[in-house]
Amino acid sequence: MTLSEGWEMVVGLEVHTELKTRTKMFCGCPNEFGAPPNTHVCPVCLGLPGSLPVLNERAVELAMAIGLALHCTIAPSTFHRKNYFYPDMPKDFQISQYDRPINANGYLDLIDHSRVRIERAHLEEDTGKSTHLGGSGRLHGADHSLVDYNRSGVPLVEIVSAPDIRSSAQARDYASELRAILIATGASDGRMEEGSMRVDANVSVRRADAPFGTRCEIKNLNSLRSLQRAIDYEAARQVALLESGGVVRQETRHWDEARGVTATMRVKEEADDYRYFREPDLVDLAPDAAWVERVRSGLGPLPAERRAALLTLVGEVSEAQLDVVATVVDAGLDAIVRGAIERGVDPSLALSRAANELAPDQGSITREGFAETLLMEQRGDLSATQSKAVLATLVDTGGDPHAIAADRGFERLSSDSLEGVVGDIIDQHPDEWGRYREGDDKLAQFFVGLVMKATRGQADGKAVIAALSARRG
Amino acid sequence: MSALRREDVAHVALLARLTLSDEELDLFTGQLAQVLEHASDVAALDLEGVEATAHPFGLVNVVRRDEPQPTLDRDEILAMAPDAEDGRFAVPRILGEDQ
User: Fold this and answer.
1) What is the DSSP letter of A23?
2) ipTM of this predicted complex?
C-alpha cells in the first residue's frame, strides 16, 4: 500500500522481548509461560515490604548477546525506577534502564540491504497480566480487574529503533529479521502470539523532505500482519487528517484487529510524569571486556550468515524459495537441510519438506532420518504422500525410515500395477475420460484423486499424470 | 531551584491518584517545600572536581545465578489481599487512562 502522492511515512519500532531465562529478572521465581495464575510469585515480584531485588546473571548475558548481534556498544549501565499508577506492577514502579542503557548505537541490516539504526536495547522487567471483567473486556467500561503476577518481573529487553523505517513492508522485514536474531541468539522464542515478543510502532507522516511530523504510538500488534496493517492504516489516517486541515495529536493508540482501525488509548504521558530515579537497591552494571568476549564467543552464526550458507548450496533460487530458506533458518532447520543436500537430496525438495513438514519444530527426527526419507522419495520408493507420512512419524517418535515405511505397508507401486489401476479407473469413468481427452485438463486431478484412493496413497501423483497424458496421446 | 508551586503538588497527587482537599494541598505544598529546601542545602555545596557517583558503594555487577527458588503458596498470598477471584488478585475498576 502506498500513501497519497507527496507524503512519506516515518516509522520507528519498539520491540519488547522476554528473555529465555529459567528465572525472573530480580528473583528466583520460574520464568515460564502458561502456569496457573500467581503460582510463580515471591515477596520480590509481589513488591512486599522489605524485599530486595538481585539481578539475574543470565538475563544480563542474553541482553549483551542481543546487543552484540545488533552491533551495539555495550556500556556501563544503571537501573531506574519508572513510577506509574497501575495494578500490573505491585511495587507501583517498574525497574528499567533510563539514561544509561546496557546497549546503544547499533544497527540491523534487512534482507533488502536497507539499514535500520538501533538507538538502544535496554533491560527492564515485565509487568503482571490484568484481565478486565465486565464491559467489553477492554479497560474502558470494566467493572473490576483480576491480576496474575506470574509475568511480573520476567526479564525483558526493549529494543528501540531509530525512525529510519519508511514503509510498512520495511517495518515487517525489520520485525521479522529481529525476531530471527532473537531466536538464533537463544535470547527469546520470539512468539508474538504468546506475547514473548511485542512490537509497538511509532508512526508519523510528512511531506517529502519536511521535518518529522507529530507521532502516534500504536500498541496491541500481535502479529507481523497486524503490524503491517496497523502502520498502513495509521499513516493513511494521519495524511487524511492533515490534508483536511487537522493536526495530529501525540498519543498512544490501540490497534483493533477485528475492525482494522486504530483508536485513542491515552494521551502520551510526559517522561517527567514517570518520575524516573535511580533504583537505590541495585548497583551499577559494568561488564568488563572479558565478560563481553565470553558472550561474544558464545554467539553462533546469525541468520543472515546462515541463510547465505544455505543459499550457496541451493544455487539459483526463486523469490518464493527465499522465503522458504528464511523459514528453515528461523526454525533452526538449516543444519538438517544442509545435511540432506550434502547426501545428494535435491535442494528444492529438502527445503520444501523441511519448511512444510518439519517447521516449526523438528521434534525427534535426526539428520540421517530426514536425508534417508528424502532419498527414498527421490528414488521413487516412496510417493510424496508416503514420504510426508514417514517424516511426520519421524518428527513425532523418531526411528528408522525404512522400518516405518515397511510397517505402514508403503511399497513401491510397480509401473505395471499403476498402469493397471489407471486403466481400470478410466474404464469406470468413460464420460470424464472423454472430456479429459478433449482437453479438459482440470479432470487430471479427478483421476489422480481416484488413483490415490484406489492405491491408498501409494501412487506418485506425477507418475499418474504421466500415465494419463501418455494414454491421451 | 524554583519554588514549589501548589499546581506541582496537585499534579504529583494526580499521578499517585490521591484526592487532596484545598487545605491538604496547602499543607503538603508547605511541607514538601521544606523537604526540597533541605535538598537545596546540598546543591549549595561547592562540588567542583568531585566525581559523580551512582551509588554510595563502589560495587558493580552484583548478580545471582539463574537458578529457580521456591515460590510462595498461592492460597496464602491471596488470603492477604483484600479480594481475590479465580486464583487472581481482584482490584477495583482501573481509572480510565484517557482522562
Assistant:
1) B
2) 0.85
